[in-house]
Design a protein that fits this description.
heterodimer; A: 9 strands; 47% helix; globular; B: mainly alpha; 20 helices; elongated
Chain lengths: 366, 378
């Protein structure tokens, strides 16, 4: 029975780690019966990009410690992001299977601490490229993998996007909070649904006037703006938002200072749409202490509950997103809370990242 | 957190905090210089970019958030030797210059990016020993680019950055003080504006911005003696007719408020009119002159007639200028009032009320409405 269980675990692990291109053959033949959606295409490209993998000793001098070596056909930002997405998910499963395998094999199957290593090789020809929708799915999947808690906000954001609401969410933009991570999550979710997303930064240390801010926004939507005065630029922006069937817009505004005379006008303009138009107009305003206007014509202003992240929510994140066992996730969540990181979610992200990433090269968070 | 406990990582973060905008290439060079990181530069860069206080912008550039940058800049000054800091600021200034050379004209964004490059280069240069003046000039160049809103934004940014420089013990050059004054002026902080313009004027260095600062200081201060001296210095420091015309106009207004100096005031107005012939300036000077005469000429019919004549002239020369028309119309209303001509006073006041409403001068409009009611009751 023990041997069978060991065999089962070995097969499970082997199946899990099998990224060979042959697994994407369905999509590579011309017999497939339907066109896969963006998520399906992402998986297809993942298999296409994987050159192969090996399981062998991490260090020839220590033959017992295994390492999963994953080779990719290209070396660019997109491939690295796909690699991190894959290794994040595999690491989660590995954390669940590896201890069992170690025990059932009587300690024979051991893994190195950095259990996986990605190798990026120069491409030997054209490589598969992600289409914008597929790329958006990858970004959204990656942001979802690392999101800690904020489920209630995530739900209301998705609901506003689905219902085509005109909303301004005021979130804390302070460095100790998790506004950066959550705004990144919002824009990735928006792009995944086909909404236009853009981000702008109001910073007292740089000389950005209203016209330049609007030009940055419109450039991200695909428009160029000639040199204009601020109110003229705002009129052009409203005209773009008033066009028929423009879909949804999600704008991230990070305001280091709210002492900007044109901020209410900008927020009001971003809520512009044709009467009856279904597309959402969502603005995420990140500022110190989530401060900002309480009312803007044409938009609902919401300041979501933004409490410290509880120990239980950290534990759940460790368990569900990183695959830690009940015991380990409890221990790590307790450590994070002892360091007061629940009160400083911005730092919590860095802490968990350093604790949980178990592959080389370690990825950038964002 | 763990980053600040690691000497190399901390220095790498300090290096990045010195810049207003970074790309990965410039950041790598800055980190290598300050942290002496050699082979670990890329790892340090990744760790820094992962921090919650580091924000990526849509064009791929990134920056350290202001709520932590200011304290990091102070630590940079305390922990990193001055020769390394000089090298870092030179590197960042050169990188900004390089970006400037690579910019492609593409509308509004181009204008902003040019300004941003000058601002970054100036802010960095001003922190390099013996390059302070060159840096200050670059900041002024950034301000001179673009239209009024862009100038206001630049002055506000320099005002913000000046507090970093002050904390580190840098002497603020006239250009920076001048821009701080302009920033205070545009946010209507008259006290600060007066303070900074006075500092520039008191340095006593002839030059274009010094002349403008002296002029603006004179218009803000209640100290008439200092104001007159500042205006005369302003005239001496800038021979450009456009500037001198404005200063003579201000000097005329100042002298007109003093008893027994009406002749000098009239001379000043006359000189101002001789230097600029555009309708806007001529209209404003005639309106001011008329206003001075109306104030001076109460109980003196000849003076009142002259005031009315100049007010009519101002309205004819620049009829579309609401400011000029409002002053001139107010003068006419006062003249009619002094003469007891209620019908014409009422007519002038009704026009004045409309002008004040158009200029959003609500308090002035209330006073005018009050007087209109008084006349109608009478």
């Amino acid at each position: 029975m023990g041997r069978l269980r060991l065999l089962g675990l070995l097969l499970a692990m082997a199946d899990l780690l099998d990224l060979s291109p042959v697994r994407a053959r369905y999509f590579r033949t011309w017999h497939h019966l339907y066109d896969p959606d963006a998520a399906g295409k992402l998986h297809h490209v993942k298999h296409e990009l994987a050159r192969g993998f090996e399981i062998g000793p991490a260090d020839p001098a220590v033959p017992g410690d295994l390492r999963f070596l994953l080779k990719w056909r290209a070396d660019d930002e997109e491939t690295r992001q796909i690699s991190d997405w894959v290794l994040h998910e595999l690491s989660s499963y590995w954390r669940q299977v590896a201890p069992e395998l170690h025990r059932e094999s009587g300690g024979t199957v051991r893994w190195a601490k950095q259990w996986a290593r990605a190798v990026f090789q120069p491409p030997l020809g054209p490589r598969p490229v992600l289409s914008p929708p597929t790329r958006a799915v990858l970004d959204a999947e990656r942001a979802e993998q690392v999101r800690i808690d904020r489920d209630a906000f995530a739900l209301s954001f998705r609901s506003a996007l689905d219902k085509g609401s005109s909303v301004i969410f005021r979130l804390p933009g302070d460095s100790l909070w998790d506004g950066k991570q959550m705004s990144h999550w919002c824009s990735s979710q928006a792009r995944k649904t086909g909404a236009r997303s853009a981000d702008i930064h109001l910073r007292p240390a740089v000389a950005k006037d209203l016209a330049s801010l609007v030009a940055e926004l419109m450039n991200q939507w695909g428009y160029d703006l000639p040199p204009l005065a601020g109110d003229e630029a705002l009129t052009r922006m409203k005209a773009a938002l008033m066009a028929v069937d423009m879909g949804s817009f999600v704008t991230i505004i990070r305001a280091e200072s709210l002492e900007v005379s044109y901020l209410p006008a900008l927020l009001g303009a971003l809520a512009t749409r044709l009467p009856g138009e279904a597309g959402a107009r969502i603005t995420i305003l990140l500022s110190a202490g989530a401060a900002g206007p309480d009312a803007i014509p044409g938009a609902q202003v919401i300041q979501p509950d933004w409490e410290a992240i509880s120990e239980e929510n950290i534990r759940q994140h460790l368990s569900l997103n990183w695959g830690w066992s009940e015991e380990d996730s409890h221990k790590k969540a307790a450590t994070a809370c002892r360091l007061d990181l629940g009160q400083q979610p911005g730092r919590l992200y860095t802490f968990l990242w350093e604790e949980c990433v178990a592959w080389d090269p370690p990825p950038s968070i964002f | 957190m763990s980053l600040l406990g690691d000497d190399n990582a901390r220095k790498a973060l300090l290096a990045c905090s010195a810049a207003l905008n970074l790309n990965d290439d410039v950041a790598r060079r800055a980190i290598a210089l300050v942290a002496q990181s050699n082979g670990s530069t890329d790892t340090l860069l990744d760790r820094i970019k992962g921090l919650s206080c580091v924000w990526k912008q849509w064009d791929g550039t990134w920056y350290v958030a202001e709520d932590v940058r200011a304290s990091l800049v102070d630590r940079l000054g305390a922990e990193v030797p001055s020769d390394v800091r000089n090298g870092l600021h030179e590197l960042l200034a050169d990188a900004a210059d390089q970006r400037l050379l690579e910019l492609v004209p593409d509308g509004q964004l181009f204008d902003y990016r040019v300004r941003a490059c000058h601002l970054e280069a100036g802010y960095q240069q001003i922190q390099v020993t013996r390059h302070e003046e060159a840096g200050a000039e670059r900041l002024l160049t950034a301000w001179q680019q673009g239209r009024l809103e862009a100038r206001d934004a630049t002055a506000a940014a320099v005002d913000h950055l000046a507090s970093d420089l002050e904390r580190q013990g840098h002497r603020l050059p006239d250009q920076v003080l001048f821009l701080r004054g302009m920033a205070a002026r545009s946010r209507r902080d008259w006290g600060r504006a007066e303070l900074y313009f006075r500092m520039v004027w008191e340095h006593g260095q002839p030059g274009e911005i010094q002349a403008i600062a002296a002029h603006l200081f004179a218009n803000l201060t209640r100290d008439r003696k200092a104001a007159e001296q500042a205006l005369r210095d302003s005239l001496a420091w800038n021979s450009e007719p456009f500037h001198r015309a404005q200063v003579w106009h201000s000097l005329g207004n100042l002298l007109a408020r003093e008893r027994n100096r009406s002749k000098e005031a009239e001379d000043a107005y006359q000189k101002s009119l001789e230097l600029r012939h555009d309708p806007q300036h001529q209209g404003q000077v005639y309106a001011s002159w008329a206003n001075a005469l109306a104030r001076e000429g109460k109980m003196n019919l000849d003076e009142l007639d002259r005031a009315a004549e100049l007010a009519h002239k101002a309205r004819q020369i620049d009829p579309k200028n609401l400011h000029t028309r409002a002053i001139a119309t107010k003068v006419l209303a006062e003249v009619f009032r002094e003469k007891g001509d209620l019908r014409n006073e009422l007519e002038a006041l009704e026009e004045l009320l409309e002008l004040e409403r158009k200029r959003y001068r609500h308090q002035d409009a209330q006073r005018t409405e009050h007087r209109i009611r008084e006349i109608k009751r009478a």
